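Q: For a teaching handout, I want to show students what a protein-ligand complex looks like in token form. Below are the inputs, and the small molecule is 6-phosphogluconic acid. Please produce the holo structure.
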Amino acid sequence: MKPEIRIFKDLEELSRAAANLFIEQAAQAIEAQNRFLVALNGGGTPTRLFELLATDYHESVDWSQVHAFWGDERCVPPEDAGSSYGQARDILLSHVLIPDANIHRIIGELGPAEASKDYSLTLKGFASPPLEWPRFDLVYLGMGEDGHTASLFPGSPVEGSEPTRPVTAHYQDRPANRVTLTPAVFNSARMVAFMATGEKKANTLLEVLGARYNPELYPAQRIDPKDGRLIWLVDEAAASKLPQELR
Ligand code: 6PG
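A: Here is the structure, written as tokens, with 6-phosphogluconic acid included.
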């Protein structure tokens, strides 16, 4: 499906648009299914979104019906600054009335293999048959300067039909012990919203959106929901290399 590309002046405007997607998707899902399944991302880009959801926007969501999951996690305990769960908890989840039982974190401290297996079971508990995992109502993703998304890095394995995968590759010279959901799970979501900002991502954004399909090199290209919407929320700086026909 062709992505919808939305360009914003800056991170603030982009984050407000991302918060509005949360509110709209939550309202629709709760109306239709009495619950809203959302997968959050880590990294620096979503922190303003999390702040907005915890403050200006918190009364616009029925948090009792929200179930929070993660698209990937670093294999560290929640107290570690690198924990995506820890970040979302500190900025968002501890400030809203989401029941503890609705927070489904990847248990990074178990290590990649165990945490991956454990999270497959968590996802199974919310499966939308015949899938062995849920159809997320909304998935937020970021994109690295190298075109990775979640913890799907360039050159990472693609075989297998499992919903989660342990990641142990070295990434930018740092050991990257992580767990990631796989493209099959992201691609069965009802909506995937990428967020990318900054000039440093402009070339990669052009490659991912405009150039030929080369997902080995640009894993973000693997994200293409079969029966859902794919929305790219980007700022002017990240969009600066996009040709007119993609804007
Ligand atoms: C993480 C995610 C990763 C992230 C991108 C973009 O770091 O938790 O796994 O895929 O979304 O690397 O990160 P920034 O938002 O920090 O640029």
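A: Two things your students might notice: The helical segments are 11-33, 47-54, 84-91, 112-124, 183-186, 202-210. Residues 41-45, 72, 84, 142-144, 148-151 surround 6-phosphogluconic acid (CB under 6 Å).
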